[in-house]
Every structure is written in C-alpha cells, then in structure tokens.
C-alpha cells in the first residue's frame, strides 16, 4: 500500500493505493460524506477488486484531509475528484481503463464526473437516492446521466432509497441498511461478478 497526496483546486487530497498482482484496470473509490477509508464496504471492495486484478485508489477529499467533517459543496467535490483522477491516471495508472466508484456521497461524485473524467464503468455502494424520508428530493438524475456500465449495491433496508435498474445499470440488493456492513460476503460476490463482466468488455 502506498499513500500519496494530490493538489487540487480546493486543497490537498489523499490517495491510498492498493496494487493488484496484474493490473487490468484501476478503480478509484471515494468515501461517504462524513466517513473515511475504514468502512466495511470499502475495505471489502478493495480486497475483491485487487483479487480480480484491479488496482484500487481510495480517494480522500480535501475537506477530510483538512480535518473537517462537513462535506464541501458538490462542485468542489467534483473538481477535486477530477484533479485526483487526472493525476493518478498519469502517474500511477497510465494506459489503464479507469473505473470510478464510491460509497454514498462518493458514489454521487463518481456518477456526476463519469463522463468528463473518462470513466469506463461506475461502481456505486449505497447510492443515496434521496435523503431519508424525503423521496421528493430524488437524485436519480445523477445515476441516469451515467452511460457506461454501472453497478449499484444497495442495502435492502436502506433509508436512502432503492435505485431502479436500467439498460446499463445493475442494482443488487444485499441484506442490511445504508452501511452495507450486514453481509460483506454478498457485497463481495456482487462486486466480483460485475467486475468480471466489465473486465471482459474492457479487454
């Protein structure tokens, strides 16, 4: 594992790099709004992806590196993410397809930046379709805007809603809530199976 800092328009971001034995692609994963790298779903996804031959970069947004818990505005999150994508793509993952991903808020960033960042696929862990109890605040347009293969892994009891599958979007429900910690084996299976299909498309 290697840790690197990346300068962005909104401060220093941090990336934790996990190398696979053979690098067929690189997965960049963002954290949730108030969390970091240590959530069960991100840890499980790192292990699953590297076992599948995919390098992983866990990306920590500048507001978290600076010690703040309240997330930055969406435009700042997106700009910082894209700066990290450009830097890591050139320095660490040249010539490799890039898969964007993240949990909760990080999944939203991955979706919003997929087109401009040149993502080959998108992985969403616990996509927050709407705030709890507020289905009127629907964020489905962020998912709908992604045109590359997408996987959403969602807890069956997620108070943030349940996205619908679409032509390029798979939705896998696993036991548990928004934390996705109830059954990490089910999460790993869903991610592994999807990555296998995506990598075959990218080869």
UniProtKB/TrEMBL annotation:
InterPro entries: AB_hydrolase_fold, KANL3/Tex30_Abhydrolase, NSL3/Tex30. Pfam families: Abhydrolase_11. Residues 24-180 form the KANL3/Tex30 alpha/beta hydrolase-like domain. PANTHER family: TESTIS DEVELOPMENT PROTEIN PRTD, TESTIS-EXPRESSED PROTEIN 30. This is KANL3/Tex30 alpha/beta hydrolase-like domain-containing protein. It comes from Actinopolyspora saharensis.
